């Protein structure tokens, strides 16, 4: 297992390095001049040139990349062009919304999907199975932003159980902040739960057809005991794979939902930075998102090693 984890860690590091190069290069080829965006189209060429030199944008690209990546490794993401604030502070403030939102959505999706997926598999080809698969297909086809709008109309406008948007802040109103994330979390979790439920059902049914399960059943083990004692652990590997991908998708894909519910999360920070040509924010935020996605996949690999004993023997 140590060789397996070492290979994954090396892949983690190389992936982050490659991502940093691609992100920095992509920002360089984007059209537009940050200095001109900050000063306005009526600014004189001398003022634009002076601001370009002040921001260090006139230096060679390799030199600016080296300064940027060494600063990131030391926790310094630079100073925002438009906000005049350390990028790390802006990112931390946004993460306080995006990460809890993604965790809430993932926990909700997992709880619903695992229960429904196992129940559907245990009642294969029965009305319960057909009904759950039909509902999951409907959940997959519903866009998250459209569901979010419907939830706002129902629970915020008509019933007035929740606010229509905004975020009061964890320090000012913890329970109010938690309530503000419930509807967005439900919007995000619905599609993910529908997908995960179908994957869970398929994985459980596939393991049920394995020879070792048939042997256990032939020895007199009940279907329920075989499910919880033999099938579930082996079926978790593909389920965990999808869960890792879904959580990474939730972290990186909250832009639309944050717009629907006016949440000042990481997605909104990136969107505003792109509009303002605040490249230092975009670079730092996208690299952080890439690191979080790769880290989630690395944790999934560790769970593989804990769940699948074959990795401990073969050190794949």
UniProtKB/TrEMBL annotation:
Topological type in the membrane: Multi-pass membrane protein
Chief place where the protein resides: membrane
Keyword vocabulary terms for this entry: Cell membrane, Membrane, Transmembrane, Transmembrane helix, Transport
InterPro entries: BPD_transp_1_N, MetI-like, MetI-like_sf
Pfam families documented for this protein: BPD_transp_1, BPD_transp_1_N
Coiled coil regions in record: none
Cell compartment(s), UniProt: Cell membrane
Annotated ABC transmembrane type-1 domain residues: 95-304
A GO cellular component annotation in the UniProt record: plasma membrane
Segments passing through the bilayer: 97-122, 134-157, 177-199, 286-307
An example molecular function term from Gene Ontology annotations: dipeptide transmembrane transporter activity
Annotated family: Belongs to the binding-protein-dependent transport system permease family.
Protein name: Dipeptide transport system permease protein DppB
Species assigned in the record: Oceanibacterium hippocampi
Organism ancestry: Bacteria, Pseudomonadati, Pseudomonadota, Alphaproteobacteria, Sneathiellales
